[in-house]
């Protein structure tokens, strides 16, 4: 499938419910996903004067070529209507990132901190990322291995809160929670490659993405794309974990988790509308009164637990400014 302007615009309207912010950021690694996403945002801006775009490229400093590649990305987008920012990651003094055994985790945390810093400085409420269905599947398998809950197995959502470290910049106190937006949520990686090819979009190939020994996600990508298609043939023991089966399992987890998310949301609305929540800030306590109508023998415990998570984290899928 080719992701054309009409499909992309429809997706934006669905995500933001026609309440687009005046500024957005986009995580621009230079790969096909982020290049296509940035290009489509650029075209949408030209056609609708929709928002100011801040494209953020992270130099992980893991390879000598990374700075040069970041500058090449700048050349690709310099004539697009956006502001391009290159951020170099800083590690502890004397630390060589190539020596870190948990580089994937460290780089992810520092990357999101860099995104947050730019967005808070520029008063940007949303950052776009190029996550797609293949990424979702990798996350699903990764969390299966980690014995995740049903909500973890459901994966990332189309809109979610930005995961950042506890020490936020001072500007964070004056802004709403920064949101991560995923317009390619329902598209396959092949859709993105095909759209780049049709529009002759240039992008950078990062060789570290092919190093299956560098990150667990790289290995999972190799397993899904190379190993399973070869092994999961009819009547083989691997047939039950072929890609379609895994996708269906993930879809079932997402559907089940969404059911409880909706129940938790409805419970929250009911309690608020009927003034059944009382807070006592000076005592650090809260009183909640649950009427009998709220109790469902089959789902009460999970619904209440999810309601607590949603209200503590304020992590709603609906975008709000």
| Name of the top-level CATH class of the largest domain | Alpha Beta
Helix fraction bin: 40-55%
Taken from the alpha-carbon principal axes, the silhouette is globular
Number of helices: 10
Average pLDDT figure: 81
The CATH topology label of the largest domain is: Rossmann fold
Q: How many beta strands in the DSSP annotation?
A: 8
Which SSEs are present, and which pair or pack?
Elements lengths: L4 H12 L6 E5 L4 H17 L3 E8 L6 H12 L5 E6 L14 H19 L4 E3 L4 H13 L4 H4 L5 E3 L17 E3 L7 H10 L17 H16 L11 H31 L3 E4 L4 E4 L11 H14 L8
Parallel strand pairs: 1-2, 1-4, 2-3, 4-6
Antiparallel strand pairs: 5-6, 7-8
Pfam families: ATP_bind_3
Keywords: ATP-binding, Ligase, Nucleotide-binding, tRNA processing
Enzyme class: ligase
Which keywords apply here?
two-stranded antiparallel sheet; alpha/beta; 6-stranded mixed β-sheet; 321 residues; disordered C terminus
Description:
The structure is a single chain. By secondary structure, the chain is of the alpha/beta class. It has 2 domains: 5-210, HUPs (Rossmann fold); 256-312, no CATH class. Helices cover 46% and strands 11% of the residues. The protein is built from 10 helices and 8 strands. The protein has helices at residues 5-16, 32-48, 66-77, 103-121, 133-145, 150-153, 189-198, 216-231, 243-273, 300-313; strands at 23-27, 52-59, 83-88, 126-128, 159-161, 179-181, 277-280, 285-288. The chain has a 6-stranded mixed β-sheet, sandwiched between helices. A two-stranded antiparallel sheet has the order 7-8. Helix 3 links the parallel strand 2 (52-59) and strand 3 (83-88). The longest helix is centred in the C-terminal third of the chain and has 31 residues, at 243-273. Mean pLDDT is 81; it is low at 165-172 and 314-321.
């Amino acid at each position: 499938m080719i992701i054309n302007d009409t499909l992309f615009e429809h997706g934006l309207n669905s995500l933001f419910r026609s309440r687009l912010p005046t500024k957005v950021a986009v995580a621009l690694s230079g790969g096909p996903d982020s290049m296509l996403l940035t290009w489509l945002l650029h075209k949408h801006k030209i056609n609708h004067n929709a928002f100011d775009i801040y494209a953020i490229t992270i130099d992980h400093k893991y390879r000598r070529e990374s700075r040069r590649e970041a500058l090449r990305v700048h050349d690709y987008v310099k004539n697009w209507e956006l502001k391009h920012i290159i951020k170099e990651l800083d590690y502890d003094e004397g630390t060589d990132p190539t020596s870190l055994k948990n580089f994937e985790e460290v780089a992810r945390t520092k990357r999101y901190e860099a995104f947050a810093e730019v967005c808070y400085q520029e008063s940007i409420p949303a950052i776009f990322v190029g996550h797609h269905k293949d990424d979702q599947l990798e996350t699903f398998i990764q969390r299966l291995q980690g014995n995740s809950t049903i909500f973890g197995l459901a994966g990332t959502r189309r809109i979610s809160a930005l995961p950042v470290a506890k020490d936020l910049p001072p500007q964070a106190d004056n802004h709403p929670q920064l949101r991560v937006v995923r317009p390619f949520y329902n598209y396959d990686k092949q859709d993105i490659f095909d759209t780049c090819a049709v529009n002759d979009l240039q992008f950078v190939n990062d060789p570290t993405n092919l190093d299956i020994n560098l990150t667990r996600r790289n290995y999972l990508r190799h397993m899904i794309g190379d190993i399973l298609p070869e092994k999961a043939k009819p009547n083989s023991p691997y047939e039950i974990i072929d890609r379609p089966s895994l996708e269906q399992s993930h879809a079932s987890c997402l559907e089940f988790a969404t059911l409880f998310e909706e129940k938790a949301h409805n419970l929250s609305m009911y309690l608020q509308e009927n003034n059944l929540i009382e807070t006592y800030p000076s005592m650090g306590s809260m009183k909640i009164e649950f009427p009998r109508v709220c109790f469902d023998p089959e789902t009460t415990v999970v619904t209440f637990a999810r309601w607590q998570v949603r209200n503590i984290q304020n992590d709603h899928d609906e975008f709000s400014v």
